[in-house]
Every structure is written in C-alpha cells, then in structure tokens.
Amino acid sequence: MTKAVKIAWGSVAIGLLVLGIKVLAWLMTGSIALLSDALESIVNVATALAALIALRVAARPADEGHPFGHHKAEYFSAVLEGVLIVIAALLILREAWAGLIDPRALDAPWDGLALNLFAGLINGAWCWVLLRAGRALSSPALAADGRHLLSDVLSSVGVTLGVALAFLTGWAWLDPALAILVAVNILWSGWVVIRGSVGGLMDESVPEADLIMMRRIIAANGGGAVQAHDLRARHAGPATFVEFHLVVPGGMSVHDAHEICDRIEAALQSEIDQCTVSIHVEPDHMAEAKAIDVP
C-alpha cells in the first residue's frame, strides 16, 4: 500500500468522524447553518472514497492496454469531487431558502457550537496533512481533497461565529443567511477543483517555472550537442512527461548521441519525480533559431 493510499484511508476515517460530530451539533441546535456544515462533511466522505479508489487505480503499473500508466485516474476523482461539492451547495441553498421563509429560534446553541468547533479543529489538522502530502507526492487527488477541506474549515469557523451572533442578537434570519454564504463558498471551491482537474485531463503544459528549470538542466547536461528545441512537458497525476528535439553534429555516431540523451535524461529524472523523457535526435541542419543552446 502506497503512502498516498494510506493517507486517503485516513481521510475516509476522519471524514466519518467529523460527519458524526457535525450531525450531532445540528441535532442539538436545529441550526440550518450547522446543517449546511454537516452536508459538506457528507461530501468530504464521498470525495475521500473517490480519491481512495482513484489513487489505487493510479498506482497500477503500465500495462499493454495503458502503456503510459494509470496516472490520470486521479483527475477523474477530482472532477467527481468538484461535482459533488456543487451538489452539496445546491442542497444547502434549498434548506437556507426554507429557513429564510420560516426562521426559527435555535436550541442549545453553545453545546452544539462547541461540538462544531471541535470538528473544525480536527478538519484543520487533517487539511494540513493533506496539503503537505499532495505537494510532496504530486498527487492531484490528495491536493484537491486538502483544498476542499480547507474551505470546509473556513466555513466552519464562519458558521460557528455567525450562529453564536444569531443567538446573542435574536436575529433568527441570520442562521439561514449564513448557510447561503457557506453554499456560495462551496460553489467556488467546487469550480476551482473542477477547473484544475480539467486542465490535467486536457494535458495543459507544466508551469513556466518548471519549463525554465528543464531548459536549464538540458543546457547544463547537453555537452556535445548543438542545441535543443520544441520542449514540451505535461503532468499526469504524480508523473511528468517531457519531450524535446536534440540537434547533434551530422557526423556524430549513434552511440555518442545516445550517451548525451542518457545524460540529459538522468539529470531530469534526478530533479523531477516519476519523470518520463522522450528525446528526438536530429542532425545539425535541423537546427532552429528559437532553441536551447548547449555548450
């Protein structure tokens, strides 16, 4: 079992624990805002399960039917997570609208708010774990889960403070109004997750900073070649695919050209985890004006 899969299992367990606490807080208070917080936790559990399944699929090695691996399974998980987030927001808006039409006083607010705040603290700690793991393991599924959980933490803090204010002031309408704000925040979170995942599925280029780093490595390790051009790179989950054309002197032997390619490939792979490099070797009359110069 990979580290990413272990963390995904942890997300499922944490999600179920927090869901139970938030549902209890809602039952104690009758607050629509706390109900909205609980509904978002249901999404957390569902998306944690989706991420777990995607990570298990993505960890499978390349096979005859999938020669480039199964890395993109994580992007499908993140898209599903975004869709579920949007559905949760719509459910919250429905409940909030009913609460605005017929506002009601809250029951036992302080005990319920204390429980909800405790659940938020648990989520906050786990959110930190997910965001760190998502960056360290280059996992879109864990990163998306962490970003969604961060929005849940922020909305939980806002809901807790808002419900307390609603009870202290006696403004019953404030409770469903807060639920609407939570729903809007969740909708934005869902859009961000879907947008990032669709970019991965559409093979967007890696950030310019990564391309600059790749050009530097190629230039530093391409001694003996003339130049390199047409550098392209993309991410597929934790994997990075790099390809470019390497121009060598026309009279260079295949053996010598291959040694240069091996040197560049090893240097890229030492800097970039799970990096697959494809190099197309060309003779010097194929040189281009816009290229990576090598010594």
Automatic annotation (TrEMBL):
Membrane disposition: Multi-pass membrane protein
What residue stretches are annotated with the Cation efflux protein transmembrane domain? 11-202
Q: Family assignment?
A: Belongs to the cation diffusion facilitator (CDF) transporter (TC 2.A.4) family.
Instruction: Look up keyword Transmembrane and say if it applies.
Output: yes
Protein name (record):
Cation diffusion facilitator family transporter
The answer on whether this UniProt entry bears the keyword Membrane reads yes
Q: What PANTHER family does its record include?
A: MITOCHONDRIAL METAL TRANSPORTER 1-RELATED
Query: What InterPro entries does the annotation carry?
Result: Cation_efflux, Cation_efflux_CTD, Cation_efflux_CTD_sf, Cation_efflux_TM, Cation_efflux_TMD_sf, CDF_Transporter
Give all residue intervals belonging to the Cation efflux protein cytoplasmic domain: 207-283
Name the keywords, alphabetized: Membrane, Transmembrane, Transmembrane helix, Transport
Which domain of life does the UniProt lineage start with?
Answer: Bacteria
Localization of this protein: Membrane
Q: Which Pfam families match?
A: Cation_efflux (PF01545), ZT_dimer (PF16916)
Q: Which residues cross the membrane?
A: 7-29, 41-59, 75-93, 113-131, 152-171, 177-194
